[in-house]
Every structure is written in C-alpha cells, then in structure tokens.
Design brief:
Layout lengths: L7 H28 L10 H11 L6 E4 L7 E3 L4 E4 L9 H18 L3 H34 L3 H37 L8 H35 L8
Parallel strand pairs: 1-3
Antiparallel strand pairs: 2-3
C-alpha cells in the first residue's frame, strides 16, 4: 500500500484540484491587479474604507492596522484587529476598497455572532493540530503497514486520517464564511458612494475571484481525504 506524493492514484485525485487552485490564484491576482489601477469614486484608502464601515456598525473598538505582504489581509477576532496588507492599506483603488470592505464584513460577522464564523474560530486549534500531525501519522502508519503487514500501522494511519478530517471541516466551513463577508461588502459599498456600475463590477470580480481560492482549498482537502479513505480500503468490496 502506498500513500502520498509518489502514488499515481494521489495525482488522479489531486490533479484537477491543483489545476483549479492554480487557476483561482491566477484569477484573484489578475483581478486585483487590474482594478488596483482604478481609483475609487471617494478617493478613500483601504484603511479609510475599513474604518468608515466599522464605525458605521459601532465597532469603534476594532483596530485597523497595516501588515506586511501582498493580499495578506485578514480579520483577527481574538484581538479584534483588522489587518490590511501593502496593496490595500494605503491604496485608494477600487480593488483595495473591495478587499477592505470584505475584511470589515468579518468584523461585522463577529459582532452579530454569525454562527459559522464562531464555529470556524472554535475549530482553528484542532485544524492547526490536525494539519501539522496528520501527515506524520499517516506516513508513519503507512510505512508500518508496508513493513509490518498491517496491525498497529492501520490504526496509526486511521488516527492521522481522523485528524486530517478536522482540516477538511475547517476548509468547508471557510467557504460560506468568506462568501457571506463578500456579500456584506457588495451590499455596503454602494451605501458609502461606491455605486457606479464600474465599481460594482470591479468589486464583484475581485471578491468572486477570491472566493474561488477558498473553493479550491476545500476541494483539495476533500479529494485528499477521499484518497486516504480509498487507500485504507474503506470503499473496497473485499471482505
């Protein structure tokens, strides 16, 4: 029994997902780059858009900070901090406004206790633990099954697969959380003056492209889990 990157069956499961991930990554970068060249109608920087939207929701205690990197924007619910990257924080482009509004949408989710955001935050430690340990257990268990003909290795491998399931769950929950934040951004930006057809088109393109990266990540994790289950014989008809 073989597991991992050198197993041809692995590429059959993961190959289409890798292509989807590559396409999604290209799409989000190209969409952001395209609309980063267009100034939004209010001339507001990403930081100003975020601050305005947060204040409109009464979220005066949520900080807006600059973080190094490209498209590294995120909201940290533990410290109530919205961090905007180099491409977003000081830029007054339509793309920057869309990304900033999306991240502000996560802060609003936190405020209204959006259930899936709370659930995702709760499973972050388990998903992180599973991501780090699952592959180690699976590789060790697979080796034990090869050289020791099953036995303990089977259970070690299963332990790794169960841990990896937490990663799959996290990725699945992430998709609707991100889509909801994007929908909030698309709805609120016209309310602060970004209501031209061009701006609405641009924001939709940037945020829809970003959504595909989360879909691709979820698809990859599901395909990987199915590969593990097939290799463990879960779908085998043999007795």
């Amino acid at each position: 029994m073989g597991f991992g990157f050198f197993d041809p069956l692995y590429f059959i499961f993961i190959g289409p997902c890798l292509l989807l991930s590559m396409w999604a990554s290209f799409k989000v970068k190209s969409s952001f780059k395209k609309w980063a060249g267009y100034r939004n109608s209010g001339g507001l920087t990403g930081a100003q858009v975020a601050r305005m939207l947060l204040d409109r929701e009464g979220l005066h205690n949520v900080k807006v900070e600059h973080v190094r990197g490209s498209l590294a924007d995120h909201y940290d619910p533990t410290s109530k901090t919205l961090r905007l990257s180099d491409d977003t924080y000081a830029s007054n482009s339509i793309a920057a406004a869309g990304v900033a509004a999306h991240e502000a949408g996560h802060a609003v989710q936190h405020k209204v206790k959006y259930p899936l955001l709370g659930f995702r935050s709760a499973i972050v430690p388990l998903a992180g633990f599973g991501s780090n340990l699952s592959w180690i257990l699976i590789m060790i268990g697979s080796g034990m099954m090869i050289f020791m003909q099953g036995g303990l290795g089977y259970y070690v491998t299963w332990a790794g697969v169960i841990l990896f399931s937490a990663v799959v769950l996290f990725q699945l929950v992430t998709v609707p959380v991100e889509l909801d934040a994007s929908n909030r951004a698309k709805k609120v930006l016209p309310e602060i003056g970004m209501d031209s057809p061009q701006e609405q088109k641009a924001v939709s393109q940037v945020l829809n492209a970003a959504a595909w990266t989360y879909v691709a990540a979820a698809a990859t994790s599901i395909a990987t889990l199915l590969y593990f289950l097939v290799r463990l014989g879960l779908f085998s008809s043999d007795d």
